[in-house]
Amino acid sequence: MRKSDEEHQDNFIECVRSRRQPNASAEQGHYSALLSHLANVSWRVGNQKLAFDAKTETFVGAPEANQYVKRAYRAPWVIPEKV
User: Fold this and answer.
1) Where are the domains of the chain?
2) CB-side neighbour CA atoms (13 Å) of 47
3) Which of 15, 43, 59, 60 is within CB 3.0–4.6 Å of 65 for a Cys-Cys bond?
4) What is the pLDDT at residue 58?
5) Measured between alpha carbons, how far is 44 from 67 in angstroms, rounded to an integer?
6) C-alpha distances in Å from residue 73, one per residue of 9, 21, 34, 77
7) What does the DSSP 8-state code read for residue 10?
8) For residues 41 and 68, is the Cβ–Cβ distance under 8 A?
9) What phi and psi, each to the nearest 5 degrees, are found at residue 81?
10) Where are the alpha helices (DSSP H) in the chain?
């Protein structure tokens, strides 16, 4: 395990115990991972050039790519559209 991972894990556990905000927000983590996920989707649909709408977080005119944006959940373990 890398030192940076260990520090994030320790910070997370401390925040669970203390109810304080972590050093890095979930939103920062989302944006940090987003480019890698977008590249993976492009590769999965045949290395297509895709247009991504950041506001809706969907691919414009690419239903095949949009199937990879969100996983299909099974009831009752469903995450609502609006959280």
Assistant:
1) 3-66
2) 0
3) 59
4) 95
5) 11
6) 27, 29, 21, 6
7) H
8) yes
9) -60, -40
10) 3-18, 26-44, 63-66
Nearest to 66, CA basis, from 55, 56, 80: 56
**What pTM was estimated for this model as a whole?**
0.69
Both structure tokens of 47:
């290395």
Distances 20 to 7, 42, 44, 68 between C-alpha atoms, Å: 16, 37, 39, 33
pLDDT for 1 equals: 64
**Residue from 10, 39, 36, 42 nearest 23 by CA:** 10
What the block records as the tokens of 23 is: 């050093």
